[in-house]
Amino acid sequence: MAHVKAPYFVSQRFVWALLSCLGIVLHTVTRDNIHAALSCMVNHDIQNLTSVNSDVDRGRNITYVCGGHVEYNVTRDFDWDEETVRQLLSVYLYGQLLTQIPASWLALRYSARLMWASGMAIGSLCTLLTPVSARTHVYLLLAVRFILGLSGGLTFPCVTTMQGKWCTPNERTKLASIVFAGTSVGSIYIFSTTGLLCEDIGWAAIFYFTGIFSFLWVFVWIFMTADTPVNHKWISDWERLYIDTNIGKVNLTKVQSVPWRKMLKSGPVWAIVIAHCCDSYVTYTILNLVPLYTSENLGFHIMQHGPLLGLPFVCMTVMCIAVGHLADTIRERGHLTTKTVRRSTQMFASLGTSVTLSLVGHVTCESRGVAFVLLCLMGMCIGFNRAGFMVNHLDLAPRLSGILFSISATFGTVPWMVTTYVAEALMPNRSQAEWRNVFYVCSSVSVFGAVLFGILADGDLQEWFRSREVFQDYGDRHELAGSVGRRVRNNFFSNPDENTVLVESET
After folding, report:
1. What is the torsion angle, in degrees rounded to the nearest 10, for the CA atoms of residue 106, residue 98, residue 205 and residue 304?
2. pLDDT score of 72
3. In which element (H, E) is residue 501 found?
4. Does 487 have pLDDT greater than 60?
5. 402-430 burial string, b = 16+ CB within 10 Å, else e?
6. How far apart are CA 395 and CA 398, in angstroms?
7. Mean pLDDT of the chain
8. Contact 326, 317 (CB under 8 A)
9. Are 276 and 270 in contact (CB under 8 A)?
């Protein structure tokens, strides 16, 4: 019996994770940069919760901060009303809703790698066209944002489908944590650069920079990656054999049908869906309402304190990667089961976020430094969920992880749409006491998600995934690793407790 091990940091699967992370960074920026850009695009005070522009005096570039004021040298070009801004922010989500589940189904049958590249190329073009479409007519901008949403809906279904082919069971969390760290890195970029680009170059530069880098990423992605290790041009023979040894069913079986009904009856699947919905509600609050709260009540505005507002996302990124590596080490050494690791990390993430977010609402302008300590702690807590529900799809059904993620992400899009309306209903006067109610509701949502995930979540392959109705079995097959022939025998169906392939040397 041969025991195959391949290096991690100097491997093609590590390169794949880094490029996937960069792709998600660019996806996040193209999706969310308009939220920040509105603060230097719209020429008057928009008194709603969908814009970070609400502390700018009507017709002037002056922001009041804790009794004082700061003047910015920014030209704002548009007089859009509140409803127009609301439509600009929500139309992306409608496009994304339409493509996520179809994209995951297509990614099973065609090249997920090329599908994602195509979506990113379309998104890059839409991002580059954003300034000219905004200056032409707002309806044209709405159309561009809708198409951007359609293309953006391909990202997570495709990358999670590829995770099932590249992430071995004992490296599943740490590779996924690198990939999903792209969401927080994208937020760091948005908060750190928006103010500088607006003041020094102009708001259009926010979109031009992102669009150009996204196009460059598409070419690098196509050139440097492959759908599976077997098809990769530069992967070493030992690494290919190592991946096939651990997830050999990728090459020996193919998905014949998707058990939609059985999936939707599965408690662990609904644990992921509920956790995703609750996380989306919290994420929208952090990305959009917390910056608005800090600008109105604490005097921190993205135009002046952008890098400081990005600090919680730095903490989130560091903790995300660290916890991912720690979780896999604990699982590999047998200290805790996968189910225990997923439940404990997710519950810590949700409960820690709930506590810190509740406390943020009590911070006043006189002690505003405490707010950023709490926000950084909250970012660290959220980093734990990358080892929780965000990777749990791979535990339940590796080959169907894209399908499972698209289902949870589709449900998770709805909270992004309703968060603003809930906040508006809770704070008609926008006093600090009303802000606390907004954070209390958000904290309660987080606790709700933690409790249900702790009850329903699982960490093992599901019976409906092992079914021969799902897979077409090709039986034994030979694979080459260098000059030595290897017989790979799949025990996927015969041994329900193992998720590996036995590798025998031929002499």
Report:
1. -120
2. 52
3. strand 501-505
4. no
5. bbbbbbbbbbbbebbeebbebbeebbeeb
6. 6
7. 83
8. no
9. no
pLDDT at 247: 80
**Beta carbons within 8 Å of 10's beta carbon, 6+ residues apart:** none
Residue 475, phi-psi category: left (phi > 0), alpha (psi -120 to 50), beta (remainder) = left
pTM for the predicted model, two decimal places? 0.86
Q: Which has more pLDDT, 480 or 157?
A: 157
Q: Count CB atoms within 10 A of the CB of residue 55.
A: 20
* 220 CB-near residues (< 8 Å, 6+ apart): 19
3-state secondary structure of 81: coil
Amino acid (one-letter) located at 24: I
Cβ neighbours of residue 227 under 8 Å, at least 6 residues apart? 111, 112, 113, 162, 165
CB atoms within 10 A of CB 167: 26
User: For residue 284, what pLDDT band results from cuts at 50, 70 and 90?
Assistant: confident
Helix axes 82-109, 138-152, angle to 10 degrees: 30
Of 347, 354, 364, nearest in space to 435 by CA: 364
Six-digit token pair at 305?
């304190």
Return the closest-CA partner of residue 65 out of 281, 301, 243, 278: 301
Checking if the pLDDT of 497 tops 60, the result is no
Pairwise CA distance, residues 180 & 386, whole Å: 7
The token duo for 22 is: 């960069």
Cα 335 from Cα 347, distance rounded (Å): 18
Residue 497 vs residues 315, 327, 461: alpha-carbon distances, Å? 37, 20, 9
Of the given ranges (61-65, 135-139, 492-496), which has the lowest mean pLDDT?
Answer: 492-496
Tokens for 336?
């805790």
Mind listing the pLDDT tens digit for each residue in 82-96?
A: 888 888 988 999 999
Q: Quick one: which of 145, 176, 177 has its CA closest to 163?
A: 176
Among the residues of 333-367, which ranges form H helices? Answer: 338-360
pLDDT tens digits, residue range 332-391?
Answer: 999 999 999 999 999 999 999 999 999 998 888 778 788 889 999 999 999 999 999 999
Query: Cα(39)–Cα(116) distance, rounded to whole angstroms?
Result: 30
Q: Which candidate, 189, 367, 368, 205, places its Cα nearest to that of 287?
A: 189
Which two three-digit tokens encode residue 20? 């996937």
* Cβ count within 10 A of residue 207: 24
Where does 137-201 have alpha helices with state H? 138-152, 155-166, 172-200
pLDDT at 450: 96
CA dihedral for 391, 396, 402, 406, sign (positive or negative): negative
Give φ, ψ of 69 to 5 degrees. -155, 155
- Amino acid identity, residue 294? T
What local confidence, expressed as pLDDT, does residue 44 receive? 54
Asked if 412 contacts 282 with a C-beta cutoff of 8 angstroms, the reply is no
